[in-house]
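Homework help board

Subject: predicted structure for assignment chain

Our instructor gave us this sequence and asked us to write out the predicted structure in token form, then describe one feature. I got the tokens but I'm not sure how to describe them. Can anyone check?
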Amino acid sequence: MLKLFRFLKPYRWGVALVMVLVLLQSLSELYLPTLMADIVNKGVVTGDHGYIWKIGGFMLIVTLGGTAFSILASYYSSRISAGYGRILRGKVFGHVENFSLQEFDKLSTASLITRTTNDITQVQQVLIMMMRLMIMAPMMCIGGLIMAFSKDAKLTLVLAVAIPVLALTIFLIARQGLPLFRTIQARLDKLNLVLREGLTGIRVIRSFNRLEHEKKRFEAANEELTGTSIKVNQIMAFLMPMMMLIMNFASLAIIWFGGIRVSHGHMQVGDLMAFLQYGMQIMFSMLMLSMMFVMVPRASASAVRINAVLLQEAAIRDREEPSGEASGDTGSAQGERGVIEFDDVTFSYPGAEQPALSGLSFKALPGEVTAIIGGTGSGKSSIINLIPRFYDVDSGSVRIDGIDVRAYTQEQLRAKIGLVPQKAVLFTGTIADNIRFGREDATDEEVRHAAQIAQATSFIDEMQEGFGSPIAQGGLNVSGGQKQRISIARALVRKPDIYLFDDSFSALDYKTDAKLRAALRGETTEAAVVIVAQRVSTIMDADRIVVLDEGRIVGIGKHKELLNTCEVYREIVASQLSEEEIA
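My token output:
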């Protein structure tokens, strides 16, 4: 957890101020029993009312001062903790944004959400406690012992017995409970995962009548978390009664033995009263420390999980010094922009036994449509993922405009690309906001033009607010085909050098598909277009068709050429088209 405290640097003077305020509060609380002893010994016993009023007034001032210090310490510690949480959340989110898909595969989305919210909240809470109690508890304990010793050295033997018993009780209970706090965080992760899957996949769950199955999954995860939480609370519930029992026995012993010393004239009544209060202050400081023992390990488990995210290095990183070619306007230097070249590319997903792609070599040129087709699992989407460098190749190279994609910064590389993913993703906001996600400064005319090319204006204009119509979270208030068309418009408004369509026409009917491809032809005359498709009708007119089978290229050419030369392509065509359509 100490590693995370480096983010407290902007608040170092605030932390120092809180510690000073807590120190002053502790000193005022330690001074009060001594003043009370003086009132009893010198005022009450002698009947000096003037002295009682004088010291009583001073006690009131000290009390008000201690209260003011306490309020200020609480205010500043809360502000520092909230600011620290904001910085930490920002650091985690910013770091996660740089992750490649490989890191998202390793650290699940549900776990990342838990770490950014619940875990950081745990660290925030313990930070407030540490700022308040880390100074106060030792100060009250040590200061109380010194003041108690000054009142009566022999009576402190009672505390010498009570404090170790109290410390041993705290240790034994905490040792049983602390490991369970780590388990709670892991089970909270699992509950979040089940809940997230259940809510995002509710349509599929209902369509397959799996509500009871998902309910049981959630109940199982919930029971595990609840069971662990109950167990740890049952253990920690022993702490307070045991401490109160020890404290009450200690108070009884102080009054018993103190009364004997008062009766023998070895101690004054006021000093006994002060000693009793110091004893209680020492015990309560031990109670505060025990609260720290409970909270710190739980926050420590959370801090380890947060650190795991911050220390996770992205597998895909920009070179420290991008090549001179990549940093300039490479397209204009070479006369054409958007040339994609795969040169003997082999690629495997992390942990996979077999490569997803093996020995791939082909070119996609600007002004042309390059289509990729193949069976399920043949590696079509893997090719799309390598172009914007979502993953890096194992061997060979992917080049854009003659330069290896690894030589570009990720921002430079992706500025050249307009991607329409296989699963259309929309964000909360309006339709116009979602299209402008491709280019923030796009005008209303450009947004409408992109929507027209994507064949989206037909349904947008029918909506009550047109382009200002709201999109629900995940685009749940529009159909699959409508989502795809908005996603295509988002890529078109970007006006990139390269368009990547990853099975982006699958939810469109044949008529809309044909109209959209015809409109795209006129819009992408200077850009390279790469289309991954399952439907032969979508790619029949492509300038170049790359046929994949088990991660290898088994044919490259136009539709009619491949019908004569590529058996895999013939099988795909025969499974989708009639003999008349093939002819």
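Reply (TA_rk): Your tokens look well-formed. For the description, you could write something like this. The chain has 22 helices and twelve strands. That's the kind of observation they're looking for.
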